[in-house]
Amino acid sequence: MNTKSMIARIVFRFTLIAVTSILCGSLTNADEAHLASYNDLLRRIEHLESYSAHSGPGAIADTGGCESCGCVQCCCSPTLYAGAEMPWLQVQSSGFAIPAAPLATPNFGQEPSWRIWAGYESCEGLGFRATYWDFEDSAGISPTLGFGLGIDVYTADLELTQRAQFCGFDLLASGGVRIGGLEQSIFAPGFSLVRDFDGAGLTFGVGFERQVGCSPFDIYGKFRGSILFGDTDINVSPPPPGVTVATLNNQTMPIWEMQLGLEYNRKTSYGNLFARAGVEAQVWDVPPVVIGLFDTHIGFFGPTFAIGVER
Questions:
Q1: Which residues, listed in sequence order, are joined to residue 302 by a DSSP beta bridge?
Q2: Do 19 and 98 belong together in one domain?
Q3: Which residues contact 14 (CB under 8 A, 6 or more apart)?
Q4: Do residues 304 and 275 make contact, with C-beta atoms less than 8 angstroms apart?
Q5: Are residues 154 and 296 in the same domain?
Q6: Torsions phi, psi of 168, nearest 5?
Q7: Phi and psi for 6 in degrees, rounded to 5?
Q8: 88 shares its domain with 42
Q9: 130-139, 147-156, 288-297, range with the lowest pLDDT
Q10: Which of 4-13, 92-101, 137-146 is the most confident on average?
Q11: Is residue 244 part of a domain?
């Protein structure tokens, strides 16, 4: 074998070794990359399973920048809720006090009433709600003579609701229809004069809740405005009992309501239980009728307490 042939064989062998090494290295790197991708995928799946187990059914990843001291806030599942509330209100009605005749002052005290509500909310925050409230009280102007004033109001609402989150606030807007009424009476032994308004109209409300740190307490507030359109009957008795002596048609009654308070939440196997304590204020713009000491505004003010469940 001559020198050229030996050199050519050596060059060929080195070239073959180099090509083989490059190919083996490429295959090894590809296998390692594939293995790394597979392991990363497993880790991601385990992370999602852990998050889902911690957050409960229907939990989704937080894509809206929703974070605050590690509290779980972002969830998406349909919700049913119901509650009962006891506003302990005092009628704020026009009265007058004369030192020489103290019997002329109506003495409305704090009176409990009941409000109930129930609703449904979809995963996207859209829902509906039904609410009913009734309040009744009376005050003696002259207890010895049996002469006094009475008041009875009620409201029934059916609304669409929409929930949203903004900068740590849980916001709820609502709008729908309201049916309501107001009955005022002046009574004495064997005699009564009653103004009875009943109407229907629109209602709109906004509310907020804001968690206090990572505690189970929320600050909440509500505002609602309603306008009722209806008729007023003037009834007198006797004689004959309960006869309608006049009807005032096409009257308007605006109603304004506010609440502010603190809410406590506790998660249980039955759902999220909550309890509230706050202050409520209402103003009813009464149509002008010469009855009830010429009132054109009637207010209600006092503490309110509520319990409920969300599931």
A1: 280
A2: no
A3: none
A4: no
A5: yes
A6: 85, -5
A7: -65, -45
A8: no
A9: 288-297
A10: 137-146
A11: yes
Our CA angle for 195, 199, 200, nearest 5°, is 165
Per the listing, tokens 């209100």 go with: 89
Task: Tell me the CATH number at 200.
Answer: 2.40.128.100
Domain assignment present for 180: yes
Q: What percent of the chain has pLDDT over 70?
A: 66
Is the bond preceding residue 254 a cis peptide, omega within 30 degrees? no
How far apart, in whole angstroms, are the C-alpha atoms of residue 162 and residue 311? 17
**Which residues are 43's β-sheet partners?**
none
Tell me how far apart the alpha carbons of residues 295 and 311 are, in angstroms, rounded to a whole number: 44
Instruction: Quote the number of domains for the chain.
Output: 2
- The domain in which residue 232 lies consists of 79-310
Q: Are strands 243-268 and 217-237 parallel, antiparallel or unpaired?
A: antiparallel
In contact, 251 and 274? CB cutoff 8 Å: no
Q: For 225-280, write each residue's pLDDT tens digit.
A: 999 999 998 888 776 655 678 888 889 999 999 999 999 999 998 899 999 999 99
**What are the tokens at 288?**
């002008």
Helix, strand, or coil (residue 50)? helix
Give the ranges where 56-82 is alpha helix by DSSP (H).
none
* pTM for the predicted model, two decimal places: 0.72
Q: Which helix (H) or strand (E) holds 151?
A: strand 147-166
Q: What is the spatial distance between Cα 66 and Cα 60, in angstroms, rounded to a whole number? A: 12
Nearest-5° Cα angle at 226, 220 to 232 = 140
Which of 77, 48, 44 has the alpha carbon at shortest distance from 61?
A: 48
Residues 36 and 90 in one domain: no
**253 and 227 in contact (C-beta within 8 Å)?**
yes
Burial of 8 (0-12, 13-18, 19+ CB in 10 A): exposed
Instruction: Examine residue 11 and state whether it is found in any structural domain, yes or no.
Output: yes
Residues 45 and 142 in one domain: no
215 is a domain residue = yes
Domain boundary among 39, 55, 71: 55
